[in-house]
Amino acid sequence: MPGLGAVLAATFFGQIGGNLDNFDTVDRLACVAGLAPVPRDSGRINGNLHRPRRFNRRLLRTCYLAALSSLKNSPRSRAFYERKRAEGKSHKQALIALARRRINVIWAMLCDRTPYTEPAPANIPIAA
Do 91 and 68 form a contact (C-beta atoms < 8 A)? Predict the structure, then answer.
């Protein structure tokens, strides 16, 4: 997978315990990595989504670095990042969204036991 080299892949597997048996769903893996927002509501106020208080910082760093590296190597990742930036998200928010998307892809690859294939880039014009 672009951006996930030998060192980052080894770190990723080391942080998750070597396999996905510890996680019921991809959402749980993302929550452990600190990539899934959790509600922090109070009273009648709802919709406050924040980073979880407890998460694996090394796993988050690994996913973040892999997402950052994939911007150079993967046109599909670059297009997703640019789309998030066009939506008004900051650089950090767009990278975290890309890391979350890549967690979904890694989960599917490991569950289906299939190699990564780069999808053809969609020719969707970005509104300026």
Answer: no
